[in-house]
Amino acid sequence: MISDLFTDYTLRTVALGAAALGAVSGSLGSFAVLRKQSLLGDAISHAALPGIALAFLLTGSKAPLVLVLGAAIAGWIGTLLVMRVVGTTRIKEDSALGIILSVFFGFGLVLLTAIQKRPDASQAGLDRFLFGQAATLLHRDVIMIAALGAVALGVAALFWKEFKLLAFDPDFGASLGFPMRTVDVLLTSVLVISIVIGLQTVGVVLMSAMVVAPAAAARQWTDRTGGMVGLAGGFGAVAGVAGAVISSLAQHVPTGPTIVLCLTVIVVVSLALAPNRGLAWDWVRQVRNRRRLHMEAVLSDLYELATRHGGRQHGHAAAALEVMHPGARHELGELESRGWAHRTGADEWAITPEGAREAERRTGGGEEVDG
Amino acid sequence: MMVPEQEIQWIAAVTAAACALPGVFLVLRRMSLMSDAISHSILLGIVLAFFVTENIASPLLIAAAAATGVLTVTLVEALHRTRRVKEDAAIGLVFPALFSLGVILISRYAGSVHLDVDAVLLGELAFAPFNRWVVGGTDLGPRTLWVMIAVLVLNAAFIIAFYKELKLTTFDAALAGALGFAPGLIHYAFMTLVSVTAVGAFDAVGSVLVVALMIAPPSAAYLLTDRLPRMIMLSVAIGVASALAGYWMSYLFDVSIAGSMATMTGVAFGIVFLLAPERGLLALARRRARNRWEFAQTMLAIHLLNHEASPAEAHENCESHLHEHLRWEPGFARAVVRRAQGAGLVSRAGEDHLSLTEAGRAVARETVAA
To answer: Which of A97, A117, A261 comes nearest B100 by C-beta?
Structure first.
């Protein structure tokens, strides 16, 4: 299967296309996620549908560049409308996004059904834009994805500093004299490009995940913007290739959902295992802390007992300690291995001088233990 | 006995009303996109329940789908609570994953049965009248219509029964908590309601268009009123009107019914966005223009008052001088003077010379004093 990647022409085309678009949408999606605009991608990709249909209706062409141009214009108009509605009324961003994505998508469906009804139309293939069909990728599609993607990445590299300012502190950027609105428009355009190039492969319904998921996964591994953008691009490319190849090999499996599931795996692994931010480490830290607290509690019990009842040499029944702290027997073993407690009888324990010192150090007290 | 065209319109209208009711609170709670998430991920619940029951009409499907909707909300909130991702990203991560799983399961294993992705995503209202509800040999009408009527009644009953709680948790969750209203409980009950509504409507209009019916009419209503009861009424009215207009649009152009309905909710929102009496774009523009003229007239009055009865009056209080002093273009200055004359603030004393009326003096003094 892996060797097919290098020998099978179709598979290689598909994999290359998916890798290119995964890399582009993943890395540029980082800015959307950092700006809390994760769902803007959802609106843009849904809004692109009528653009695709209109481009076909107006030109009669199914050339990828024509359709992508239509998608980009419609996606752009959708984004502008969202900004306009949010800027001029009290409607919040979530509602504006919801209206634009559903209404544009609905209008796209209207156009698609209208195209289907046309007697002359060879419309077949436009509905692949709903869920994507990587198997339909041709050489020219891949070239277009790579070329447009390279332009988008080039713009991002050129305006790296400005995009970072926009993502983290637009007011500061404005105070430095950067035209932040222009930068915003530029970043949105780049995002639109990164979304529309993926529509044929992933589909309008799920393209937003290509923008959000790689960035959300990458964010767990690094605190640096550059690292995050690069890593997100890598994740996007890997998931793109994996999903596209799996769906090309299996029967009746649309590409978009397959890529999204691959991305989901990456996200889950990152959330769980990424160094520092991984949830698994949180859990390990919690368990460790709980155990340490527990052990210290038993040590302090032993210390108390030694102070009040019969000094250090006097053994105390583990059962008594168990009453004060359930599970104490387990901790006693741990204390013994550290040399802080020792066995004085069958099931009796006493604190050692090292243990007493340790207990005093921890409580900060200098209470005298009479021997 | 209704003809299919009438039945479709009834289904469309009832669905629109049923969606608009919870939609009002989604919009007000800033959770509009939760409807997007829920309406997509319920697909997984439907598919899984279908695999278990192998009956597309089983009520278990609705229950499972609603449960998946609530699961979506829970997952989004749990993910957000880990503080590893922001809430918007959490939504964007959860529903594509669940939806993708549903789509793949359908395409892989349910290809031969009546459950296909297009119908689920896009809905096919045109076929709804063929699926009848027959009890004891009597045809009671399309099944979808009865389902949506039940959902509508449920939504209305919930909102009436918990109106106070919903209102308080929506507008002041902290106060609601302090008063012992259990905002969390209301929240989950409400989200269950949204899920049930989405499941019911899903069959009729498809998942993406559930979003249109839930969000667009309440958003339009939000621009028309400040009162919650009126907003609810307007949302239902706008939703039903859009749904019916959508039906007729699809009839005239022979295109997707659900798509036309969504388009019409957008048209309705667009009209309100432009023309709403207080908050529409047109009203805003008009208000801004009026403010600009009023400001200019006041400026003129103050200028005239300043130089009144001073040696420079003959020179200063001339229309031709305003360009120099207030930096007004001659055309603009002429227009301002004409408006000020019309408002009775200024009178012309000669060809070019201007003088304040009593009213104009009062306006200028009042503004300067304030």
So the answer is: A261
